[in-house]
């Protein structure tokens, strides 16, 4: 009798187990964390409940990947797409600036917030051990940062040979060495967006559809204005990446209008469109065909900037505010304490990684030809021929100095030039020696103030200058005294005011 009771209880337990296994095929906690059979498995996935949610910065991504950094959570995520759906493909911990908030100025030990793009890649043999095995420079400060008065040295994403701790950097994003090597698989220079936010706002996957439609509408209005030959079409803020020779704004606008005669024969609308946003600003990435010859397409890769005003998305226009002019890539990391040597051990040539990037869109991504940040934007808004001529002279002077074009550099000066007890010949010899010593020099110029004394044929130009060379980073006010010789302005004196 006892055996029979035990047997009946055993069968009742099995029956109850079967009933509950059909009602709850997996643990309720497993459902919350997404550990359901059949879901994709990604490395470092600790918060799988976000599998059904998406960072609100990701509006559309048709190819490639996007990196999202959550400063409060000290997390880095990488998203891609599969069959038109967003997928998180990588997640890891990171360390950002030791001070909270958005970066405003150099030395504030904060990590900037915004949409950035990696511009250079440095490998183990180019870095000191403190920066780990790999590093990427970001394009901070970008145009929007400069427009709002933010500054600072280049911000990097890099590894570390030290134990990773939260909020330990001076502004850079720091990863374990193994994680930055993994991250590098998802990064394509000048194309992969890196979105840095204070805290990610997670939204349902389908919530971006209406926003995508709004931004695509704003992009279409921009395109229509360009094709219609609108007189202010040059004022829109966009960056053109071209393969080979630089494509200027004017050339781009002209080619866009000319190619419309072929619209009946070819699909010429923007392709491979991706949309990223942060707060009231957005960046649209796309490929654009600009010419067709013998059925061969020539295209450019573009970034269009938009902003939300009065609840409406619009393509941004130049605000006519002078922005800093960065004419060469800096190799100094804002994560370095002031006064220390730069972390890069090689200062010449292009890193091997820049020459071996795989895959290309319509046009290969070559070094960025960033029209909006070139000094010609300032030249266009000046009002008098003399101001334009002096602005052009300053631009030519800075470029020739950085590129070691000594004939062009010398041509900026008057024959009777004097500075620091040197005449022109001694000055040029001195500058040649500096270039031979450093090989990598950057000159950043902004806040240009020009005063012209027409009757005397003289002028002064004062501006803020940041001079960067290996082991050196100096910012101060420079003054150029100029004289007019014939129809050309020349530099007769040059000095640092402070």
Automatic annotation (TrEMBL):
Residues 343-358 have a biased composition (Polar residues). Residues 65-197 form the L,D-TPase catalytic domain. It comes from the Bacteria. Keywords: Cell shape, Cell wall biogenesis/degradation, Peptidoglycan synthesis, Transferase. GO terms for biological process: cell wall organization; peptidoglycan biosynthetic process; regulation of cell shape. It holds the Pfam family YkuD. GO terms for molecular function: carboxypeptidase activity; transferase activity. Residues 337-360 are annotated as: Disordered. The keyword Transferase applies. The active site is at residues 158, 172. Pathway: Cell wall biogenesis; peptidoglycan biosynthesis. Transmembrane segments: none annotated. Belongs to the YkuD family. This is Tetratricopeptide repeat family protein. It comes from Syntrophus aciditrophicus (strain SB).
């Amino acid at each position: 009798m006892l055996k029979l009771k035990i047997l009946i209880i055993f069968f009742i337990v099995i029956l109850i187990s079967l009933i509950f296994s059909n009602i709850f095929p997996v643990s309720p906690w497993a459902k919350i964390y997404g550990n359901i059979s059949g879901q994709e498995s990604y490395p470092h996935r600790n918060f799988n409940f976000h599998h059904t949610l998406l960072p609100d910065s990701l509006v559309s991504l048709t190819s490639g990947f996007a990196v999202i950094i959550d400063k409060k959570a000290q997390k880095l995520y990488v998203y891609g797409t599969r069959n038109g759906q967003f997928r998180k493909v990588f997640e890891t911990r990171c360390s950002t600036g030791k001070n909270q908030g958005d970066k405003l100025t150099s030395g504030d030990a904060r990590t900037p917030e915004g949409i950035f793009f990696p511009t250079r890649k440095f490998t183990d043999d180019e870095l000191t051990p403190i920066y780990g095995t790999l590093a990427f420079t970001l394009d901070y400060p970008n145009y929007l940062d400069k427009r709002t008065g933010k500054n600072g040295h280049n911000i990097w994403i890099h590894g570390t040979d030290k134990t990773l701790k939260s909020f330990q950097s001076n502004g850079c994003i720091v990863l374990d060495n193994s994680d930055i090597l993994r991250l590098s698989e998802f990064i394509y220079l000048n194309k992969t967006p890196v979105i840095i936010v204070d805290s990610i706002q997670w939204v349902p996957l389908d919530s971006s559809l209406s926003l995508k439609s709004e931004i695509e509408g704003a992009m279409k209005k921009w395109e229509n204005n360009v094709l219609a030959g609108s007189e202010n079409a040059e004022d829109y803020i966009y960056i053109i990446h071209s393969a080979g020779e630089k494509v200027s704004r004017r050339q781009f606008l002209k080619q866009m209008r000319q190619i419309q005669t072929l619209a009946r024969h070819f699909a010429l609308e923007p392709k491979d469109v991706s949309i990223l946003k942060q707060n009231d600003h957005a960046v649209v990435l796309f490929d654009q065909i600009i010419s067709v010859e013998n059925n061969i397409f020539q295209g450019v890769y573009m970034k269009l900037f938009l902003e939300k005003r009065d609840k409406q998305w619009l393509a941004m226009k130049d605000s006519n505010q002078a922005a800093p002019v960065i004419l060469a890539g800096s190799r100094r990391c804002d994560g370095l304490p002031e006064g220390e040597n730069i972390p890069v051990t090689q200062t010449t040539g292009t890193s091997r990684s820049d020459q071996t990037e795989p895959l290309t869109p319509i046009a290969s991504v070559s070094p960025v030809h960033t029209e909006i940040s070139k000094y010609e934007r300032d030249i266009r808004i000046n009002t008098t021929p003399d101001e334009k001529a002096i602005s052009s002279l300053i631009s030519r002077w800075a470029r020739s100095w950085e590129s070691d074009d000594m004939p062009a550099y010398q041509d900026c000066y008057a024959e009777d030039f004097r500075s620091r007890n040197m005449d022109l010949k001694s000055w040029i010899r001195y500058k040649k020696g500096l270039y031979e010593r450093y090989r990598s020099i950057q000159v950043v110029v902004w806040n240009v103030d020009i005063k012209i004394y027409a009757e005397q044929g003289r002028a002064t130009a004062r501006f803020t200058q940041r001079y960067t060379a290996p082991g050196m980073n100096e910012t101060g006010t420079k003054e150029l005294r100029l004289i007019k010789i014939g129809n050309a302005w020349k530099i007769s004196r040059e000095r640092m005011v402070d």
